[in-house]
Structures are given as structure tokens and as C-alpha cells.
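The data are quoted verbatim here:
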Amino acid sequence: MTDGGAAVRIEELWASYRKGLRRQSVLRGVGLEALPGAVTAIIGRNGVGKTTLFRSLIGLQRPDRGTITIAGLPVRAYRERHGIGCVPESISLPASWTVGDILGHGVDLTVEPGGRQEAFARAVERGAFDAQTIARPARRCSKGLKQRLLLAYALIGEPEVLLLDEPFSALDPPSRIALRGEITRTVERGVTVLLASHDLNEVTRLADSVFMMEDGEVRQRDLPRADPGGADDDLEADFREDDR
């Protein structure tokens, strides 16, 4: 961990894609701050720029202008020194690789040789993988197991910043509870978590601050904590109104 944690600050971020002979703007002056030891949620309908924002953070999208700093460093310098954990919305895993193969690959890429055995054991513990699961090929992983695997992989090397893009999509209740618990434990270690999600019940359970993204712009929202018994009906209605 860097001293004081890894606050993420985004200022006047603009990004666009080429569409034929023209460029299509996706982010239009986005600005937000995500603090260590907290979940910062970004909500909004499909296509408003949530994934583009995450791609800019991990270096897959080059912004047109604006700045991103983490722990006071330019985002590229921070990534090269410390790395960023990321659970993408969708990813194809090598079908013939087992759960253990994938975790081992992440350990080899991230951890110095002397600490790899311990890092592998920690990843197995985080995912609650038994010996049978470790030997399971990726093609036979359920959606819930795949999400547990991706989160355990993203946390290898103890990153201070974790990006979660729609992590609760299509999960059954036990998988949701397990994932929610691991996110909570991650935050308690002082990690800066950015969560992009359509699941307002999970957002109101987990988020310390919430930003609504619409037409490539963001504004901060004050949202109530969810009732443990279910989603907040007023919040769902408000989201639908903003999502038109």
C-alpha cells in the first residue's frame, strides 16, 4: 500500500471513438473523485460511457484530453509501479485452463518468485475454492464461480485500486452474498473501489458515494442505503426516470 492510500481523481476527461469518418464523443468533461477505503459507484444506462471510463483507467482507451491521477501520480505511471485490479463485465477465459491455472498465471505475472506460493494460497482462500474447484476447467465454471475467480485474480498482488464492471450481473443470491462480502472486506483493507452497476439494490448496499452518468457526463447523487429486505422502490423509479 502507498502511504495514505490511492485516491483516484478524474478531471475534465473527454474521450471519443472513430465512427466512419467522424468521431463519436463518449466522455464529455467527466470529473469525479474516489477515495481509499470506500466504494464509489457509477450508475447509468448502457452506452453512456461507464466502460469507457474504466478502459481509460487501465490504459485500453486513450482520452482526448483531461487528467487522471492516482495517489497523486499520472495514471500511467501509477499503473506501471503498482498495477490496478479489474473485473471486466465480460471476458473470455482460456477454455482448457483450470481455475488453478488461471490463478497461477496471475500470480506469475504479478508476484515476485519468493512470494508466489503465499499469493496463490491467498487467492484460493479469497475465492473459497476447494481442490475440486481448482481443478475445474474454465469452460465448466458457472457465472457465479467465474465472478469469484475474476475477483480473486484481480486481487492478486494486493492492488490498492479495484475496478468492478457490472460484477453482480446474472448472479444467484448465494453468489451475490459471497461477492458482496469480499467487496466489503476489500474496502476494509483500505482499497479504492470503483463499481459500475445497474443493480441499484447492490449499489445502495455497498456504495459510499454514487455518480449518475448520462450523455457522457456525471453528477453526484445522494442515495439511501438499501433496506436489507430488498431494493428501494423510490430509487428504482428515480433511476428509470433518469434512464429515459
In short: The mean pLDDT is 88. The longest strand covers residues 22-34. The longest helix spans residues 173-188.
